[in-house]
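Supplementary notes for students who missed Thursday's class. We covered one full example, reproduced here. Read the sequence, then the structure, then the short commentary at the end.
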Amino acid sequence: MSKNRISFLLLPVLCLLMAWPASAQYNPDKVNKKAAQLYSKALELAESDNFKGGIEALQQAVKIDNKFEDAYLSLAGMYGELKNYQGAILNYEMAKAIDSIYFLDYNLPYSINQAGQGNFEKALEAVKIFLTITNLNETSRKAGEYRQKCYQFALDYAQNKKASDYKFELQNMGDSINSSVSEYYPTITIDGTKLIYTRRVNNFNEDFYESGRLNGSWSKSQSLAGNINTNQNEGAQNISQDGQWLIFTGCNFPEGHGSCDLYISYLTAEGWSTPENLGDSINTEAWESAPSLSPDKRDLYFASRRPDGFGGSDIYVSHRLLNGNWSSPENLGPVINTGGDEGTPFIHADNQSLYFTSSGHPGYGGDDLFISRKGPKGIWGKPENLGYPINTIENEGSLVISADGKTAYYASDRADSRGGLDLYTFQLRNDIRPAQTLWVKGKVFDKSTRKGLPSSVELTDLSTKEVISKLQTSETGNYLITLPKGKDYAFNVNRKGYLFFSENFPLSQQQGDTASYTIDIPLQAIEANAAIVLKNIFFDPNKYELKPESQVELDEVVQLMKDNPTVKIQINGHTDNSGKAADNIGLSENRAKSVTAYLVTKGISAGRLSFKGYGDTLPIADNSSAEGRAQNRRTELKVVSR
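Structure (token representation):
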């Protein structure tokens, strides 16, 4: 159904309440009687939404009387209802050719169909003609002015994007996913191998279905296993990036707080668990819907109509606390929310790009899709319209984007739909893509016993020292954390009583597609002779002054020392075999000394610290390659005593 739907199927006196212009050449009283009978039949069919039948009757009518302007106008209206914009345009132009004066009132619906076809210049021209009518009522004038603003926005947007060679190619996801009923609200795991979506079953019940991707093809979808689907309406869902949680909207459930609440289900060996209401910290007597979970499971974005918003539906965020509960939701504020409706938020795997729909920000009309990017200190940037033809004169719905930042999925009822809404996929323009996002997954375990360890996993932007993601592993030590490309990261894993694990991911200059990482992490208990390599301690070549990016890792060491006040450590410096051996000994010792000096400035007693330089005497890799030499240039932390 078109946005701000206005039906133009009836005679002018019925649809626009306009008088028949005295100067018009067309006279409806002189229409052939048989053609008029077919016209009446067509209107009856249209009133029962049988537009195809109505079109057939009208086509017969204009064959009998090819000057029957009202028939062409109603043909145009019915084609418009079927979103056959080109058919609508052709019939409006047939009508206009008969009598342009009589047609004057119809420049508004004509403009809407021109815009539906993407012809915004013609649409703007037509609506301007419509607004020249002197006796327009207030409703019609406001409708015309609203459309004029939308068409001008479309033209301005296209002008600003003129250099783009982007081609929008929408692809139906096929019979494995889509059926004769409606499918909508897609959500995918970070590896792109599992798709979960809502299907309308038996015309009223909403259930979840899933499909797996193997060798580039989607498997035949099946109802989700377990206890999640019921005879109630479950929909508007979001799967966590690791595929273990499903948060969704349940409406009119017996234990609900309001009309629609948010629920959570967990993946078990037997399928999805019985849903649990997320509780009164999130759910209210108002409407809550459209959840989207951040990749680290710490932030939950959703839409709500609670009374403290800016108007209509607003987007909120709730934070998961250390005890597992959710904080009181925070409104995302006036940069995101307007007096209109904002909804269907989707936070990408990069944890920085938020996509959502809005009827309040400037756009093509009704609900358009927008992107806002998170800036320094978590401040959301000004939303940007995704542009035509992603946005159209129709109401757009939920959008999800794969981890590569290129592939988008959403629901639409296009001409090739199997029935109702179908799921489609397309490639995003470069300028509205999120950051390509890799990920690292694995298991944290005790190095001695090999038993999984629940631990804290943290990813920090080395340039800003801002924590990008922080999560807890599962009880068995399993983790997955996302790595948005374009930045350099420190990756640390911590558990009380153990030395932390350190890794470095230099992704700021990385080009091309890169495989994600699987890293199983053996944590060492804090005991004498236990040692780790500090992967995020940086020096310029042949220098021993610490680079600023080292602070993130050094502060981890400071915290380790404070948490274990009796522990003594030694910092060991190592180099590759470039240069003279004596120079390497001196350089490695000075580097180790710089680390201990930093720790002292942070309040760690010098009596608990020692340092030693080994130069190139203890290599851990072959010095014949650049990669091997890089591994040999390292800073180690060794426990002297506990």
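Commentary. The CA atoms of residues 43 and 54 lie 7 Å apart. Residues 172-432 form a domain with the Neuraminidase fold (CATH 2.120.10.30). If anything here is unclear, bring it to office hours.
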